């Protein structure tokens, strides 16, 4: 039996033409922190809806370019966090103020932030905010910003994470009547949400993978036109060519 040796690796590219790498084919991660499987699942979650959209003619092939744009930086950061923990396992397992201070000094993020606090920066996000406002508090790291996972909030006993249900969904604030009407006009599922991360007259557009594609915090003159433009821009929808 050969001795186990820790290693991590990252593919030079996650996508070339029609070939996409996910999971261990794209990256190998030290087991400390249990980041490897979750990172691989997140790869597949990111890619699957994009492949489906292009296959069904709902998006242009350019949407597939955003897979590598979004997942490569996240995988690189995850590998870095895993190796920092491997160098000193107490940075992962330690609890209490002293352990928190040691993690901060070593640049080690809280495990939930590594797993779920990712921020995507690509053409599939409007006005992305890739910087993390917190590497300690997941609730702060999310916050409804473009490029981040939509935060949880209860809506009539259902989590916002279940409301999006693998489809484009608009979440609007308490005073979002104009947004609800606009969503109905463009054929978009919409729900009113009372949450501190969503202003009363604001709205967030959530992708099928539960990532916030757009966030609006101030009124716009024509919400329906605004939504239609974003839905054309973000999925890189193909332009119809008139028949001859």
Q: Would you write up a description of this structure?
A:
- This protein is α+β, with helices and mostly antiparallel strands.
- The chain folds into two domains: 9-116, FAD/NAD(P)-binding domain; 154-233, 3-Layer(aba) Sandwich (Glutaredoxin).
- It is built from nine helices and ten strands.
- The protein has helices spanning 35-55, 62-87, 90-93, 97-106, 111-116, 138-142, 160-164, 177-186, 223-233, and strands at residues 9-10, 15-16, 19-20, 27-28, 154-155, 158-159, 169-172, 190-192, 203-206, 212-216.
- A four-stranded mixed beta sheet has the order 8-7-9-10.
- A hairpin with a 5-residue loop joins strand 9 (203-206) and strand 10 (212-216).
- This is FAD-binding domain-containing protein.
- One of its GO terms (molecular function) is oxidoreductase activity, acting on paired donors, with incorporation or reduction of molecular oxygen, NAD(P)H as one donor, and incorporation of one atom of oxygen.
Keywords:
244 residues; two-stranded antiparallel sheet; Glutaredoxin; alpha+beta; 2 domains; FAD/NAD(P)-binding domain; globular; 10 strands; 9 helices
What is the CATH homology-level superfamily of the largest domain? FAD/NAD(P)-binding domain
Major sheet strand order: 8-7-9-10
**C-alpha Rg (nearest Å):** 20 Å
SS element count, helices: 9
**What is the strand content?**
5-15%
Here the CATH topology of the largest domain equals FAD/NAD(P)-binding domain
Average pLDDT value?
91
Order of helices and strands: EEEEHHHHHHEEHEHEEEH
- Kindly state the percentage of residues in helix: 40-55%
In whole angstroms, the N-to-C terminal distance is: 68 Å
Unreliable parts: 239-244
Highest CATH level, the class of the largest domain: Alpha Beta
What structural class is derived from the secondary structure elements? Answer: alpha+beta
Major beta sheet summary: 4 strands, mixed
Number of strands: 10
CATH architecture of the largest domain: 3-Layer(bba) Sandwich
Q: Describe the global form.
A: globular
How many structural domains? 2
């Amino acid at each position: 039996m050969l001795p186990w040796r820790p290693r991590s690796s990252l593919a030079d590219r996650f996508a070339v033409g029609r070939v996409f790498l996910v999971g261990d084919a794209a990256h190998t991660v030290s087991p400390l922190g249990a980041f490897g499987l979750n990172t691989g699942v997140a790869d597949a979650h990111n890619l699957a809806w994009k492949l489906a959209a292009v296959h069904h003619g709902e998006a242009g092939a350019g949407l597939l370019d955003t897979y590598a744009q979004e997942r490569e930086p996240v995988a690189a950061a995850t590998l870095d966090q895993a190796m920092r923990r491997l160098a000193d396992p107490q940075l992962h397992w330690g609890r209490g103020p002293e352990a928190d201070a040691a993690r901060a000094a070593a640049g080690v993020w809280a495990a939930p932030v590594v797993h779920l606090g990712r921020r995507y920066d690509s053409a599939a996000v409007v006005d992305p905010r890739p910087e993390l406002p917190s590497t300690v508090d997941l609730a702060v790291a999310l916050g409804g910003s473009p490029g981040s996972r939509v935060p949880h909030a209860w809506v009539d006993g259902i989590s916002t994470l279940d409301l999006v249900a693998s489809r484009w969904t608009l979440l609007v604030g308490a005073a979002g009547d104009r947004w609800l009407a606009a969503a109905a006009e463009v054929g978009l599922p919409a729900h009113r949400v009372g949450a501190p991360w969503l202003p009363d007259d604001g709205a967030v557009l959530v992708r099928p993978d539960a990532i916030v594609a757009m966030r609006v915090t101030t009124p716009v003159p024509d919400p329906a036109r605004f939504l239609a433009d974003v839905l054309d821009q973000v999925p890189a929808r193909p332009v119809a060519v008139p028949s001859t």
